[in-house]
Amino acid sequence: MDIQKELAEYIKTAPGNHLAAEDALSPDMAGMPFFEEPLVGAARADDPLFEELRRPGVIGPWFRLPGEWLPGARSVVSVFFPYSGEIKRREDPARPEPSPAWLNARIDGERFVNETAGFLADRLREEGFEAVIPTAVPGEFWSVWEPGTNPEKMSDPTVGFTSPWSERHVAFVCGLGTFGLSAGLITAKGICGRFRSIVTTAELPPTERPYHDVHEYCTHCNQCARNCPVGAIDPVTGKCHDLCSARIHESKRLYAPRYGCGKCQVGVPCMSGIPPK
Length: 277
Prior knowledge:
The chain is an alpha+beta fold. It has helices at 3-13, 48-52, 66-69, 85-90, 100-126, 167-173, 223-227, 241-255; strands at residues 39-44, 75-82, 131-132, 177-179, 185-187, 193-200, 233-234, 238-239.
């Protein structure tokens, strides 16, 4: 099973990768593609880096290892869905408000990400393997935005902006990229897009990690910090999750049922690839 090839074909032909006319916030966006051909990476389920994610200051001890999501897990697959050129073109980093295209892509496009992850999980099952999408496991995946907002799952009231599974950290382990100043992951197709991952009993060849440092691809040009409309990215200390979260909540109030920002992902050297040093 060639996962890269099957996903590339699926994204090219599936109707869900194009914005439906009834969902488009602007009539001229009907039919706009959400994503370009994805990147696929894989890691062994027992890769020691997954254990490293449980360390305080990385994610924490509440991060669940692949084998805890799926007993007998052999591999983890991570997929990066790069936003299409049309979505990037329509999102102006100089304007504080998100574009209609970005709002559609962030929410309506996310449905297609989930659909594609389901397609891949089903294909793995057809090949005789078990497969679990951690972020889609009811009652098992949870998230905490502000500290103290989910005491049933996170007993420490000082901890926020976390979950038991992080798509970006998993993608790092799977060889897809390294972190930028904005806390996004810079891949060979840039930082602008979405991630999804699957834990499976299939034994897949691990993707080589061509990097050694967690921020290796970031040039610290600080353009993402200059783009941020609320000053949530500091050139020295990095991203302030409180300010970013407040920005997202405000967009939910203004644009419900959609929301988004994305200014740190567009108009930056890492938007569509790894920037030159």
